[in-house]
Structure prediction request, 102 residues.
Amino acid sequence: MVRGGRLYQTLLDKVDLKGKTFLAADWDGFHRLIPEDQLFTDKDLTFSTEQDNSNIRHFLARFRRRTKVVSKAVEMVDLSLRIDHHFHDNPCNFATLLCIFT
Prediction:
């Protein structure tokens, strides 16, 4: 198994596969590691996930993969995503913030 395969196998060992469906790219390694009835590789459901990932990279510099802005602290990544979710997914929170600072 290739290096990436071992990484994904370690992750899947930590996550219970039972009763879950996985959305993934059509990579051969996923087909070897995840049972076919639990693996979904079609694009019609992954499009929105990729769009969300693109929006996060756009608004949060730490996810743009440049060496000076990449976060190494898991806690900071978690907090950044929570703040992004709080303001971008709940427009009333963002409007309140604008009222405070204007």
